[in-house]
Amino acid sequence: MTLLDKHGVRLTVDDAIATVTLANAAKRNAQSPAMWRALAEAGSLLPGNVRIVVLRGEGRSFSAGLDRQAFTPEGFDGEPSFLDLARDTDEALDATIAEYQEAFTWWRRTDLVSIAAVQGHAIGAGFQLALACDLRVAAQDAQFAMRETSLGLVPDLTGTHPLVGLVGYARALEICATGRFVHADEAGRIGLANVVVPGDELDGAVADLAAALLAAPRDAVIETKALLAGAAGRSYEEQRRAERAAQARRLRDLAGAGD
Predict the structure, then answer these.
(1) Which residue, among 157, 9, 159, 162, has the nearest Cα to 96 in the 3D structure?
(2) How far apart are CA 172 and CA 164, in angstroms?
(3) Which is deepest, 199, 202, 237, 254, by most CB within 10 Å?
(4) Beta strands in 23-77 (DSSP E)
């Protein structure tokens, strides 16, 4: 069932699995504000029974990042150019960037597990979109790069927090400040990618991972995800308490189900 198909974003749902496809292969799935709004809309359209969201890109690249048209004086049709945005007030500019970020925030909702299936280039905004997901499965030709600094900018689409969490501050700084490519094998070694497979096995590996995630009861996965997501911000003792509270909820729910 197709729920959305516009601005280079297609959302399809098959029972408990939703697939969000970046569908502008001719431009290597380069991103624009219109695409970001469509991605945010896709998150709002998910039926309540969806447990897994797969994010993929059509063609040879996952996403080549921000469409360079954004940096031209004319920008995109019906959109302010980035040059126009630079002339705006601090408050207005902050609000605009916050709106763009909405495309990247919903992937880590506790009621879902999101999987990015990455092949070819995942550059800049494309890298950050892959980082927005809970898990990443990479084809052997995948190449990740944070190229914003080469343009005199910073990564601002929510990618810095998960990147530091995955690879640590020092390596994250090196990756972002140099803008170098992280190839699939290294991505697997340093924790950027959960799984690295040959390109022709990418879809199968994602399907296997989704099936394994669906095998566990939904509420247990939701509670576990919430525990892990909050662990970095808690002390050891706080995490112990959070574990006890979560387990108590699960035990009561299970006992209630058995009555």
Answers:
(1) 157
(2) 6
(3) 202
(4) 52-57
